[in-house]
Specification:
- The complex is a heterotrimer of chains A (335), B (287) and C (394).
- Chain A contains 14 helices and no strands.
- Chain A has 335 residues and is mainly alpha-helical.
- Chain B is mainly alpha-helical and 287 residues long.
- In chain B, strands 1-2 form a two-stranded antiparallel sheet.
- The chains are: A mainly alpha (335), B mainly alpha (287), C alpha/beta (394).
- Chain B binds chain C through residues 2-3, 6-7, 10, 13-14, 17, 111, 115-118, 120, 130, 136-137, 139, 210-213, 215, 217, 221, 252-253, 256-257, 260-261, 263-264, and chain C through 40-41, 43-44, 47, 172, 198-206, 208-210, 212-213, 216, 229-230, 233-234, 237, 241-243, 261, 264, 300.
Chain lengths: 335, 287, 394
């Protein structure tokens, strides 16, 4: 992957707010103009949070993982179990999910982060498979492969209950998405985030200048785990069911595909990739589910064969009618 | 006592199937440093071609298998020449994604051409029965897998250590530019190695068809299984894959005999422990 | 630029007009949203649902109770409750379906319970076989079967035959556990003993260890439950290769010799006994009618429990449409469904008014070579109408 080239010109206020404005605009458009798409949009929002948390690990820290669903699933189950036995309050449930995700990330990270490259990748798969098998075994707590059901979620802030039309769910998840984006962006623009990028670019040098590489990565992994847990918690609350698929390999693989489609290391790419992938899947499934794999397979092959920078430059040229003034389109902003 | 014998026999037998399916991936991923997640697709292709020839076109088992191996090798060589060699310098992530996309295309194509049904590969009468081992019986085709597995292991060790191609391959992998400067036809080495990996995948698909039935979803279904065997065994180490397959196969079989309600938990725990203990591979392969 | 814009606007307008016209044309049709797996390893279920449902409508002359039917097919893929919930939500809110149907996987069926309850959408389950599902909402009706329903008779049969010791070997997931519980409960009640309960992980490819365990258990028979597809093939092969048949361990099953996979087993399957609610070889006019209609609709489709589940599911929807005169009235439709009794391709059936699950005959079948050399499940005994024993007990 091309190394993330940081440009240090501080973004103007308006440029920094642009992503939020766009997201809010899109959200409002869906809410008022396409209310039938609210369930899909809600799922996209949840997935976007998950893929952003994956971006922290893959894009910023440079650790390719195929076991991220472990953190999502743990958050989902924790929230479901919490709602079944203690309280159905959604915000408390979110906190529980975040804590669970962070805890599992921290624990597994102590072991996983000793390794890198292919070994790390395989170990992440092993950890998530162990958790999935465990969840299947602990049928009394998790419902096994029937799924965890039977819990109800109270209205958000005591005001808005989860209705059949998905309005509450959409606004709830949308707000969490915006807040998560904000927090993650600030985090990655801070010295902490820059250190993580440094580790990605050259681990040995970071070590040489005295950075605590392992500790730094562990903290990042735990934070990513917290956000993944939040995504899982949202899914549990909105759907009121948690299935074993939330700990599955397919989910990890799909998230990675979404991330790469949208572009790593930008957080916004994670959101874009999730939206594009899930929308295409949704439309293709409805049109002809048998051949959906042709589309996604073809898309993946194309995305890798045609470097995105060239493609983007072409698109920009067509649309804007003049060459991209900003020149090196390989630069990615980190703020 | 009987149970111990059972665990041993079934464990080795399952492990051999795993080895035969995974060895091709060890070649492409390890020797060529290319993350080839489309390995299962080649296995499936070999199996489908063999099934089609033997079942629908009256080929004998041996000849059908041979043609399938050659055809898959040719397909592998073609893909390598046309597309894959552009990806050698790309990042691992890109290789992962490309080959996953390729796998999806294979899955969709198989579904389109042959439907979602399992493809049966009829065994010749000689292989359909059971062999009496004294303590118990073992299906004859498992003996075939055992034999083939050992043959592949010995052949690959011989090729790598003794043959000129093995020398070329080791040189190319160690230092491509130096090898090229010395006159080794590096591009040819790559094509042939990839073709060999594809053929081995096809062999694995065919021999493993009794346990892992040939269906369109095959490449994705068994991807994780094959990957962990290769990773635990160490990239590029065929003896390593052999050892890993046997160990993991035995762990899985033991778990089925003694604690099957835990599913694959012990298998993945073993994977994690083995990788943690020997990250470079079980038999300390070339780093 | 503006020329392009004008052309685009014209295209859009034409499209919108057509869409409106089409939607008006279909405004009178009764909409049935069918959620099934149309991609992935279980895609054959989707094909069978589609064939069975469409064959039924065709057999009734293209309309049910005078209403034209619009099917909307949605892909559930695999067990993925979040996705299924989204699909159901869209079907109910956007497409405004009158009925929901389908469902292969239990978690997916569970996921839509709050939706159908709130929107009062009658939902006919074509397959998902866990007893509990119908208790989650008053709007579920099921035309498939449950594990308890077909397992209790075979346990009783085993006891009657004089078998005292049985080993159970089930796939370790909810329906398998249901099957094991049901068998153990009934067999013990009949005075028998389950010497060992083996759980086989769902991803198992190598069944040899389990075949060996069955042999070693010393049981006279093995009660087996498998999910269908490649595991069934793998298990039957292991059963024979490891000499279980030769050792005299009887095979007792339910859906394992399903017509979809049956021909692949070859002669190895001859003699296997199962208890199940539907055999394609059932000797009745209703069944011959069904098999013909199915073949006409899709000659690749197999007559089995999935396609007959869809066929009978549409029969229930037919009656519900009749009762509501094609209008959307969930409560009235369900009330009518609860009273239904008719001759299905499986035999005489009725819907139990308490559980909304189908009460049907369960038959003992043996695999034999039928006319034409194909393997069939020959019905040798009729255990009589069985309710969902799982709900009756609880």
């Amino acid at each position: 992957m091309h190394a993330t080239v940081l440009t240090f010109d501080a973004p103007t206020r308006s440029r920094a707010l642009l992503p939020y404005a766009v997201l809010l605009g899109l959200g409002a458009a869906v809410y008022w103009l396409f209310p039938g798409q609210l369930p899909l949009a809600t799922r996209i929002a949840i997935m976007a949070i998950f893929v952003m948390s994956l971006d922290l690990v893959v894009g910023y820290a440079g650790l390719a993982t195929l076991g991220h669903s472990a953190l999502y699933g743990v958050g989902a189950y924790a929230t479901g179990i919490f709602a079944s036995h203690i309280s159905g309050d959604p915000l408390l449930g979110l906190a529980v999910g975040a804590l669970a995700g962070a805890a599992i990330a921290g624990l597994s990270g102590l072991f996983l982060l000793r390794y890198d490259g292919l070994t790390f990748l395989m170990l992440t798969i092993a950890v998530s498979q162990i958790l999935q098998n465990l969840a299947s075994k602990l049928r009394d707590w998790t419902g096994g492969d029937d799924g965890l059901t039977g819990f109800t979620i109270k209205p958000v802030l005591g005001l808005a209950s989860f209705d059949m039309f998905g309005r509450t769910a959409f606004v709830y998840c949308g707000v969490v998405l915006l807040v998560s984006l904000f927090v993650m962006r600030r985090l990655m623009a801070s010295p902490f985030g820059l250190a993580c990028v440094g580790i990605h670019q050259n681990r040995r040098r970071m070590d040489a200048i005295g950075a605590n590489v392992r500790g730094q990565l562990l903290r990042l992994y735990a934070i990513a785990g917290a956000f993944a847990g939040i995504a899982g918690a949202l899914s549990a609350q909105v759907n009121q069911i948690v299935g074993l698929d939330s700990l599955g390999f397919e989910l990890s693989a799909e998230a990675l595909v979404m991330l790469v489609l949208g572009g790593t290391g930008t957080l916004l790419g994670a959101i874009a990739g999730s939206a594009v992938f899930m929308t295409i899947h949704h439309v293709a499934s409805a049109l002809n589910p048998y051949h959906w794999l042709f589309i996604i397979g073809g898309l993946l092959v194309l995305v890798v064969l045609v470097p995105r920078q060239r493609l983007l430059a072409q698109v920009k040229r067509r649309v804007a009618g003049f060459p991209n003034v900003r020149g090196a389109s390989a630069s990615k902003q980190v703020a | 006592m009987q149970q111990l014998a059972n665990i041993f026999i079934d464990g080795v037998s399952y492990g051999m199937v795993l080895f035969v399916i995974a060895v091709g991936l060890s070649v492409t991923m390890g020797l060529m440093r290319f993350v080839n997640l489309a390995h299962g697709a080649f296995a499936m292709t070999g199996g489908y071609i063999a099934a089609w020839l033997v079942r629908d076109h009256g080929f004998g088992y041996a000849s059908g298998v041979l043609v399938a191996l050659l055809a898959t090798a040719a397909l592998g060589a073609l893909l390598e020449l046309v597309v894959l060699r552009r990806l050698y310098r790309r990042s691992e992530l890109e290789q992962v994604l490309f080959t996953i996309g390729l796998s999806f295309l294979f899955v969709a194509t198989a579904n389109l051409l042959a439907g979602p049904q399992v493809q049966l590969l009829p065994l010749p009468p000689a292989l359909s029965g059971s062999v009496d081992l004294g303590v118990r019986t073992l299906p004859a085709h498992r003996m075939l897998v055992l034999g083939c597995g050992i043959a592949v292991l010995l052949l690959s060790i011989h090729v790598m250590a003794r043959s000129r191609f093995g020398v070329w391959l080791r040189a190319t992998v160690d230092n491509t530019s130096a090898a090229s400067a010395l006159g080794i036809p590096v591009q040819l080495v790559y094509v042939l190695t990839f073709a060999a990996g594809a053929a081995l995948a096809a062999l694995g698909g065919i021999l493993g068809a009794e346990l892992m039935p040939l269906e369109p979803y095959y490449p994705i279904k068994y991807l994780v299984l094959v990957l962990v065997v290769v990773a635990v065994g160490g990239l590029g180490s065929i003896p390593g894959s052999f050892a890993a397959a046997l160990v993991l196969g035995t762990v899985e079989t033991t778990s089925k005999y003694l604690a099957s309600e835990y599913g694959s938990l012990f298998f993945f725990a073993a994977v994690a422990l083995l990788l943690a203990w020997r990250p470079q591979g079980l038999l300390r392969a070339r780093g | 630029m503006s020329i392009q814009l004008r052309r685009a606007a014209r295209a859009l307008a034409t499209f919108a007009a057509t869409a409106l016209a089409v939607s008006f044309a279909n405004a009178q049709a009764v909409k049935v949203g069918v959620i099934g797996p149309f991609s992935g390893p279980f895609a054959h279920y989707g094909t069978l649902f589609k064939a069975g449902a469409e064959a039924y409508v065709a057999s009734q002359g293209g309309k049910l109770a005078g209403q034209s039917i619009e099917f909307i097919w949605r892909d559930e893929g695999g067990p993925n409750p979040a996705n299924t919930k989204t699909l159901a939500q869209e079907l109910i809110v956007n497409d405004k379906v009158d009925y929901l149907a389908g469902f292969v996987f239990t978690p997916n069926a569970f996921a839509v319970a709050p939706l159908i309850q709130e929107s009062k959408t009658p939902t006919v389950i074509f397959n998902a076989a866990t007893s509990d599902i119908t208790t989650k909402s008053e709007y579920y009706v099921r035309t498939s079967y449950t594990l308890w329903q077909v397992t209790v008779p075979i346990a009783q049969h085993a006891a009657t035959k004089g078998i005292r010791k049985v080993v159970t070997a089930v796939t370790d997931y909810a329906p398998g556990v249901d099957a094991e519980t049901a068998f153990k409960a009934e067999f013990s009640k009949q005075g028998g003993q389950v010497v060992e309960s083996i759980r086989m992980p769902i991803k198992t490819t190598d069944f040899a260890p389990f075949a060996q365990r069955i042999k070693a258990s010393g049981a006279q028979a093995a009660y087996v439950f498998l999910p269908g597809g490649p595991p069934n093939l793998g298990f039957i092969k292991a059963y024979n290769e490891n000499g279980l048949k030769a050792a005299g361990v009887e095979f007792l099953g339910t859906a394992e010799t399903d017509e979809f996979d049956l021909q692949k087993f070859g002669d190895a399957a001859i003699g296997l006994q199962t208890a199940f609610h539907y055999s394609a070889a059932h000797d009745s006019d209703a069944n011959r009618n069904f098999v013909d209609a199915l073949a006409k609709q899709n000659k690749e489709a197999v007559a089995n429990y999935a396609s007959v589940g869809a066929w009978d599911g549409m029969a229930v929807i037919h009656k519900m449409i009749e009762a509501t005169a094609g209008k959307r009235d969930g409560a009235k439709a369900i009330a009518a469904a609860k009273m239904l009794a008719w001759e299905s391709p499986r035999g005489p059936v009725k819907i139990d008014s308490a559980t909304r699950h189908i009460v049907q005959n369960v038959y003992l079948r043996t695999v034999e070579k039928g006319p034409g050399g194909m393997l069939i499940n020959k019905e040798v005994q009729n255990f009589g109408p069985q309710p969902d024993h799982g709900l009756v007990k609880n």
